[in-house]
Specification:
By secondary structure, the protein is an alpha+beta fold. The chain contains 2 helices and 2 strands. The longest helix is centred in the C-terminal third of the chain and has 16 residues.
């Protein structure tokens, strides 16, 4: 791993406040929802439906069985 990480230290805690690397896998065009981004936003619905399925099933359970 190469790069720089900025931390904020206070009272025994540490927070990451920034990071950068020439080898980063982060792609701003994939992380935004701008009109000219690379990610096809229509794909998000299927992802949300799939990852929300366990919650949907759990909400249908009979509350008396808990």
């Amino acid at each position: 791993m190469t790069g720089d990480v900025r931390l904020k230290l206070h009272a025994g805690r540490a927070w990451v406040t920034g990071r950068r690397s020439a080898e980063s896998l982060y792609d701003y065009n994939l992380a935004t929802y701008d009109s000219e981004d690379v990610f096809d936003q229509s794909l998000a619905k299927g992802f949300i439906d799939l990852w929300g399925l366990p919650s949907k099933i759990a909400s249908r359970r009979d509350p008396r069985r808990r």
